[in-house]
Structure formats: C-alpha cells, structure tokens
C-alpha cells in the first residue's frame, strides 16, 4: 500500500525561486492537509482541503498556494521561496473531515538559501 | 487558541524500564492523536482517543485520555530500543472533532540497551 506519497524528499532552492511539493494518496480520502515542522515549534497547519475543489487556510498559509483538482492529489506551491520557508513539510490525509485516523507522508526536506 | 504542552521534552531510559509521556491541553480535548516519529521519517499513527476516560493499548504502548479531557498520557511498558524516537500528541485546533490538528512540540525518547 502506497498510502500518502510526497515528492521530492529533498530540495534546495534559491531565494525567489518557485516550486511545487507533490502529495498523492491512494486511499480515496476526502480530507488532505499540509503541515510544516520546525524545531521547537511542532507541526503547524498550512492549508487543508475537505474535498476536490475545496481548500482553506490553516495557521501559517502565507507564501503558499494549494489546489485540489482531484481527490488523489494536493500539491503545495511555494510562490517565491524565502529562507523562512526552510522546513520539513508533511502531507496528511484522512477519510473524512473529523474523527478518522490521519495518515502522514514521509516528509519533504526543503532548504532555501 | 488551544495549546498542547508535552512533558518531559526528552527522556532517556534503560531498556526494560517503564515510562510515561504527558500531553496537557489548554482547552477540552475532543480528539487526541498520538504519533511516533523517527528522525528523517514521517509520522506513524499510534492511537486516537475521543472519550473521557478512554484507554487504548497496542503492544506495549497504552494511551489514556483523562475524564476531564484536558490531558492524555502515553505509557510504554518494558521499553525497547525500537521504542526510541519522537512522540507527538496532536489535537483538533477548533475545539471540535475535526482533523485540523495542532501539535505539541514532542518528546524525544532514547532507550539505552
């Protein structure tokens, strides 16, 4: 079972560059989300989606865009990378919006220089 | 806004010893998740608790949500080196049973053979 798949696993960007972190799940889950993990701050919610065509902001959305054109995919776009976006990014999914097990991908390590 | 505090921040135990990690919330918990993370890897789902007084076990790990639903504990019996890692608690950010999670900053567990 693939579960939640994130690509790339590692990426180095220059300040000002744009890129997309890919997230795909094969469990037909309606709910998907993106978190970033920083030392001493735990995981913080960036954006989430309760179904195809529906997205909303989390706690730290600035500098990131998302879209959900299919149930399976939930890409995270960095519009103009900044050093403050150096972090580990995790994609997650669950069957519904509440009360179900939330599955996480293996993470994407991003460094912005 | 709701905050989760984990204690201790780090823990070193001898193999075979028992240990407890606590997660305390500033507000009532409606859904509490426990995850384990190894360095460089994703989050592995351990357990989810929703009802006050609820207790769940998996192998040598037991988690409990107290009656007032503001604290959860994770107990490991007869620890093994395979238990080493970072333990994270997560809870709904909106005070309801949604999957928009906030996380504690984690407890780093080391198990000495």
Calculate the mean pLDDT score of chain B and round it. 91
* Strand portion of chain B: over 45%
The end-to-end span of chain A amounts to 35 Å
Q: Into which percent range does the helicity of residues of chain A fall?
A: under 10%
Give the helix/strand class of chain B.
Answer: mainly beta
Helices and strands of chain A, in order, run as EEEEEEEEEEE
Largest sheet of chain A: 7 strands, mixed
Rounded average pLDDT of chain A? 93
Strand content of chain A: over 45%
Q: Could you name the ranges of chain A where pLDDT drops below 50 across 5 or more consecutive residues? A: none
- The helix/strand series of chain B, from N terminus to C terminus, equals EEEEEEEEEEE
Q: What is the helix content of chain B?
A: under 10%
* N-to-C span of chain B: 41 Å
Describe the global form of chain B.
globular
Tell me which protein chains meet in the greatest interface and how many residues each side has.
A-B, 28 and 26 residues
Please give the radius of gyration of chain B in angstroms: 13 Å
- Largest beta-sheet characterization of chain B: 6 strands, mixed
Report the total helices of chain B: 0
């Amino acid at each position: 079972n693939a579960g939640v798949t994130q690509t790339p696993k590692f990426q180095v960007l220059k300040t000002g560059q744009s890129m997309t972190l890919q997230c795909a799940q094969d469990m037909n889950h309606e709910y998907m989300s993106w978190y970033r993990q920083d030392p001493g701050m735990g995981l913080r919610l960036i954006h989430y989606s309760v179904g195809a065509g529906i997205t909303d902001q989390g706690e730290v959305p600035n500098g990131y865009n998302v879209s959900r054109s299919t149930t399976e995919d939930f890409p995270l776009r960095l519009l103009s990378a900044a050093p403050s976006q150096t972090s580990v990014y995790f994609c997650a999914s669950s069957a519904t919006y509440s009360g179900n097990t939330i599955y996480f991908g293996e993470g994407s390590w991003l460094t912005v220089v | 806004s709701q905050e989760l505090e984990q204690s201790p921040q780090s823990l070193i135990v001898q193999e075979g010893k028992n240990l407890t990690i606590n997660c305390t919330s500033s507000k009532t918990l409606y859904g509490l998740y426990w995850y384990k993370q190894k360095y460089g890897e994703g989050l592995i789902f351990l357990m989810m608790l929703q009802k006050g007084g609820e207790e769940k076990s998996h192998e040598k790990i037991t988690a409990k949500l107290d009656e007032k639903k503001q604290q959860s504990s994770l107990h490991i019996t007869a620890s093994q080196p395979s238990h080493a890692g970072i333990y994270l608690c997560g809870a709904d950010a909106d005070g309801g049973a949604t999957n928009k999670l906030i996380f504690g900053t984690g407890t780093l567990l080391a198990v000495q053979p």
